[in-house]
Amino acid sequence: MAEISLYRPFPAEEVPGWNFETDVAVIGFGAAGACAAIEAADADARVMLFERNSGSGGASGLSGGEIYVGGGGGTDAQRAAGFDDSTKDFTAYLKAAGGPCADEAKCEVYGREALSHYAWLKAQGVPYRGNYLPGKHIEPTDDSTLIWSGSEAAAPFCDIAKPAPRGHVIQHMGWGGGRPLVDILEAAARARGVEVVTDARAVALVQDGTRIVGVVVRIDNANRFVRAAHGVVLATGGFVFNEAMRRKYCPDTFKLNDPIGDKDDGAGIELGVGAGGDAIHMEQFFTTCPWTMPESHAYGVFVNIQGQRFINEDCYHGRVSRCAVDQPGGKVYLLLDNAHFVQPMDFARMSIAGTGETWDEVESELGMPAGTLSATMAVYNEHARDGRDPLFGKRSPILTPLDQGPFVALELDFQASYFSFFTLGGLRTSAKGEVLDRAGMAIPGLFAAGRCTSGLPAWGHGYSSGLSLADCTFFGRYAGRSAAAPGGN
Amino acid sequence: MAEISLYRPFPAEEVPGWNFETDVAVIGFGAAGACAAIEAADADARVMLFERNSGSGGASGLSGGEIYVGGGGGTDAQRAAGFDDSTKDFTAYLKAAGGPCADEAKCEVYGREALSHYAWLKAQGVPYRGNYLPGKHIEPTDDSTLIWSGSEAAAPFCDIAKPAPRGHVIQHMGWGGGRPLVDILEAAARARGVEVVTDARAVALVQDGTRIVGVVVRIDNANRFVRAAHGVVLATGGFVFNEAMRRKYCPDTFKLNDPIGDKDDGAGIELGVGAGGDAIHMEQFFTTCPWTMPESHAYGVFVNIQGQRFINEDCYHGRVSRCAVDQPGGKVYLLLDNAHFVQPMDFARMSIAGTGETWDEVESELGMPAGTLSATMAVYNEHARDGRDPLFGKRSPILTPLDQGPFVALELDFQASYFSFFTLGGLRTSAKGEVLDRAGMAIPGLFAAGRCTSGLPAWGHGYSSGLSLADCTFFGRYAGRSAAAPGGN
Which of B101, B280, B306 is closest, CB to CB, to A391? Predict the structure, then answer.
């Protein structure tokens, strides 16, 4: 008998007997898998969903439940706050956020369809309070809906597309809206008769000729054969917890110590590539450190070990953090004055590396040569007084001179401080959710969505909060709908 | 009948008849393919070599013919010049040059075997004058042997391994030693009875069960089936001329306009992945611009558009160039004083962007805010007078104050100036040249070498001249020897 392997499909002719028969088999019960299941069921397919854990969630369940939505004149929350977000601007931002890795087709379709997707989420029961919360937030600390969750208002993005806040957060008190979001999607799936099998890990695809016709799942220590008459949807997440894959495809993540996810071991990527799929942009990763908590720290200035600035600090915290991790020497410094310094959160594991009555003193305490950091801050302060940052284009309101001592330099060490990270590379899929082979053709019967694919959040330096859940939920739906079509693709 | 495809092997049972029968089929007649053929023939295998062009060469034939060799106390040329290069230092440098992408096993084996490889090259007839040419050279302009061809003497490498020059160049007047190098290897292969078929492009592998047993080549517009009883060696080069692959795997190369290679379309990578192989570090690329020509420009200082330095300029020109391409704004400036400025080479396409009697004037001409570039140069000059570069660790002799005006800023625009580049990612192979699948197991009958693999030159930021040809020739030999073994792997 052929081997049961992640790396190559099992031949259908050797299947000893089907333990389950369904139209669509969805693998993974995060937001992507849940949305795929809902749409497949709505297309009248029989749907089974297999999850390796004992319940739903995945990385989505650990998230803030924030979805990046805009365009079409704006959502209710955007319009109520006075943001008339055009599809043109929204789409342009999506492409800019994808940088050199942007999937134009996905940006275009989501750009057009985001508003109706938002309506769909509400129709599933996802509640939104509908209000706008100004300021700099990682997630709302109350139950507000709309926050700035990307680099929209920061250079160069603000020159590419008219800025608008687009992070839409489920109504939920405090952080952690991902868990109730997945709960609602799970309920919607179950209400449609989706059959959920937990503690069932996918270990192989089943192939008949060139077509994927099923999946082998490991249940109670036995291989169970699932026939999926229309298609299989992979929604298994990224590979942040697979060190061997990270070493081969994304070794820069070894600079960091805080992977986030839920058993994201890249299994879906391996299954897809084994079936002839194409894994792209595998070196891309998201990272962020909570440097804007407390919010007054958003007014700070970052420098590298040479005392040089490297980013307009009004960008999204993840973009700032990703650029920080590019800097040499394994650490960067966040410079603050007395007006803006507050003790950082314990969990951020940032330390005070230098203090001084002047920036010269801080420079000296950090062991930097005279005329480096002090010159950087002289130029910064001189122009900040005029409301300008000619070097990096940082903007008000957080562009303010840092010239009232005493001054502090916080050290953000990539290994010691809290830099969470997850991977962004994965299977290349069409906007319809079909897994594409290396020639760009759809693999019959095989679909994928979420972080086992390369999608809207394709580029670490352009990540914005809510892009991944937007991608998971929207293209999860498309994948489910495509998989449900009789005869599939 | 199954499709003839780069993307999946053709089933042996459908082969209509074998047009050629051999023990080892080598695909590609650059240095890697030539060395594989020689070793396979020396192991008493029948060897056929298929090349898509009308003659040998590949990217190797376009190169300088420089091979990175050291360790074991030093080569004849190293010892004659007073460099007793230890295997420990040599191996440590190889690993540092590979950075986060280093293949430890390949570094170790080449570290131990490089001296005997050098002797083998001589035994094939490769001539070396045996002398050392001091200074900063891209390639020798005479027929000298030994040059500094990497970042050995520059921070941080000089602190990791005791520096020694290791670029060994074939005796050949002027640039372009790659062509005579390949000619010699070709002659050595032909002398052993290797049957060379030119104008023959590989279009598919042939598989019997899990084993690769042959290859389909396109000759005179017809598919010809080649049975390779022991194995197939892929030596087809990188993918710098395949824009679709670059878009998917290495999009940062679109910043640049001067690919170098010889029809390197990634076909071998596709063939290998189609057979179950693993393509790794696909985002890595080499680039360089000829900024050290004239040599006096090596004394210059690089700044980005913010007027900040970003590298110790005594590193290898490719490392400096690769770090330059990381800088924002699409260009960098090379700063020179009157003592060191010479008109740049026409082909470099660098232009004078600013001049001045003081660095303040240059800063102003470049449109940079006061106190940026001028502060950078004040700090640089102050410490250079003491022979120090506390920020980046640049060293003498090219660390000298640039304080005698008039001054010049040359603009190196990534799109407009000459930045040659080629790709470094490719198939994951064992040190024996076996193509490994994603589980790390050797694919029976399939071997690879050179730039269709990820090898010694794995990391663009650590590239050193001669690493790629060292990798091609040495691991080409190993691949040929492994493929020749009866029963292969």
Answer: B306
Per-residue pLDDT, averaged over B138-149, amounts to 94
| Residue A334, CA distances (Å) to A299, A391, B164 in order | 10, 17, 39
Contact criterion met (CB < 8 Å) for B100 and A391: no
Question: Per-residue confidence at B305, pLDDT binned at 50, 70, 90?
Answer: very high
CA distance linking residue B155 with residue B388, whole number of Å = 12
pLDDT digits (tens, 9 = 90+) for B272-283: 999 999 999 999
Q: How confident is the model over B160-184, as pLDDT tens digits?
A: 999 999 999 999 999 999 999 999 9
Chain B residues touching A322 at Cβ < 8 A: none
pLDDT tens for A195-216 read 999 999 999 999 999 999 999 9
Q: Which CATH superfamily is domain B1-287+420-489 in?
A: FAD/NAD(P)-binding domain (3.50.50.60)
* Lookup result for tokens 């950078």: B376
Contacts of A383 in chain B (CB under 8 A): 369
Interchain pair B270, A438: CB under 8 A: yes
DSSP per-residue string spanning B212-251: EEEEEEEETTEEEEEEEEEEEEE-----TT-HHHHHHH-G
Q: Are A297 and A364 in contact (CB under 8 A)?
A: no
Distance from CA of A193 to the nearest CA of B (A): 37
DSSP for residue A277: B
pLDDT band for position A137 (cuts 50, 70, 90): confident
Q: What is the pLDDT of residues A65-84, one digit of tens each?
A: 999 999 999 999 999 999 99
Report d(CA B168, CA B118) in Å as an integer.
9
Q: Of A428, A438, A443, A454, which to mutate for an interface test with B (greatest number of B Cβ within 10 Å)?
A: A438
For residue A1, the tally of other CB atoms under 10 A from its CB is: 8
Contact A248 B282 (CB under 8 A): no
Q: Are B116 and B109 in contact (CB under 8 A)?
A: no
Let me know if domain A1-289+419-489 sits in CATH 3.50.50.60. yes
A278 touches chain B (CB under 8 A): yes
Flag whether residue A484 sits within 8 Å of chain B, measured between CB atoms. Answer: no
Contacts of B392 in chain A (CB under 8 A): 306
A281:B383 CB<8 A: no
Q: What was the pLDDT predicted at A136? A: 83
Instruction: Tell me what ipTM this predicted complex has.
Output: 0.95
Encoded amino acid at B298, one letter? A
pTM greater than the 0.80 cutoff: yes
Q: Which residues of B217-240 are buried (b: 16+ CB within 10 A; e: fewer)?
A: bbbeeeebbbbbbbbbbbbbbbbb
Separation between Cα atoms, residue A461 and residue A252, nearest integer Å: 13
Domain boundaries, chain A: 1-289+419-489, 290-413
CB contact (8 A) between residue B276 and residue A252 = no
Q: Which of residues 99 through 118 in chain A touch B, CB cutoff 8 A? A: 100-101
Please work out, in degrees rounded to the nearest 5, the angle formed at the alpha carbon of residue B57 by the alpha carbons of B53 and B58: 75
Residue with tokens 């190293």: B78
Chain B residue numbers touching A273 (CB-CB < 8 A): 438
DSSP B104-135: HHHHHHHHHHHHHHHHHHHHTT------B--S
Q: How confident is the model at residue A241 (pLDDT cuts 50, 70, 90)?
A: very high
**Domain range A290-413, its CATH number among 3.40.50.10860, 3.40.50.920, 1.10.10.60, 3.90.700.10:** 3.90.700.10
Mean pLDDT, all residues of chain A: 97
Whether residue A280 and residue B101 make contact (CB cut-off 8 A), yes or no, is: no
CA–CA dist B169, B143 (Å, integer): 8
Residue-wise pLDDT for B54-79, tens only, equals 999 999 999 999 999 999 999 999 99
Chain B residues lying within 8 Å of A2, measured CB to CB: none
